[in-house]
Amino acid sequence: xxxxxxxxxxxxxxxxxxxxTSVLQxxxxxxxxxxxxxxxxxxxxxxxxxxxxxxxxxxxxxxxQQHMAHGAEPARYTYQGLVFRSQEAGxxxxxxxxxxxxxxxxxxxxxxxDAEVFALFAQALDGRxxxxxxxxxxxxxxAVEGLSTSERRRAALLRHLWRPRRFRALLERFGKPxxxxxxxxxxxxxxxxxxxxxxxxDVSQRIAALKEDAQVAPLDAxxxxxxxxxxxxxxxxxxxxxxxxxxxxxxxxITPALDRLEARLDALAAxxxxxxxxxxxxxxxxxxxxxxDGFVFGFHGESGPPIATGGRYDALTRVxxxxxxxxxxxxxxxxxxxxxxx
Length: 342
Fold this sequence. Notes:
Structural class: alpha+beta
Radius of gyration: 22 Å
Protein name: ATP phosphoribosyltransferase regulatory subunit
Helix content: 40-55%
Low-confidence stretches: none
Keywords: Glycosyltransferase, Transferase
GO molecular function: glycosyltransferase activity; histidine-tRNA ligase activity
Pfam families: tRNA-synt_His
Strand content: 15-25%
CATH topology of the domain at 3-20 and 58-143 and 225-341: BirA Bifunctional Protein, domain 2
CATH superfamily of the domain at 3-20 and 58-143 and 225-341: Bira Bifunctional Protein, Domain 2
Mean pLDDT: 89
CATH architecture of the domain at 3-20 and 58-143 and 225-341: 2-Layer Sandwich
């Protein structure tokens, strides 16, 4: 039996229903979710009937669409097939590869669902010598949402949470007063010729927004330090939780997310996972697809890409559900990497 067949059988035995999705996905949906940045890591084509399409960059979005349109609750799905990711020359990374996945849609107990998926993946990968890592994007989102600053600045930081360098640059910029030279540059004379796609109204609105932002006080230094401390956390999970509880004294907005982390650790322990030996990193998962908004995890070998990744994506179901939503968590395994290391 191949690894793909073994994993599919394991997931079906756990109660998952096998589903299939089209290799071609509507580009409009993915662009709405991730913006133009998705073009840099996807293959785009144009169809005279269907319009702009993308070769499937992953399975989660189409599986969520299928569930929100037709699925009953609770539901568990499994799938296998190729995904396609554009790679920079010289990286040696595959531009197409096989994934086998498992997704859970269940609103009864999110912590238990997180533990179910992680424990099932740990079982599937047992004995392979892999290192498990976990994190929680929900803690980072709560920290940003709790900053004492304008809604515009919080939104900008959240938008770039997945781009660590840009995020750090924004923190530094928002932590200082706007330079006088930049303020002076905003005093643009009207009546200049219109060049490009933006008209005078667009430019005026943008200048007004920049002037409004320039009046916002710099970020609180203590809050910035606390946010940086969250990103620097790298401990076994119980010790990480204790550190994060200390940080919550400065950023109390993260407390509900920490309560969810604690409930998750209890659920993992109940499933036999040794949480005292489970690594937790405050910045883990920040370079993956942007739909994760809570628990994230991965299983890694000594080198190369992760063998398995996964996480919680409740917000994605809200976006694609057109008014409906359901807590959801899942992950994928790359069977060819398992076979290469066998």
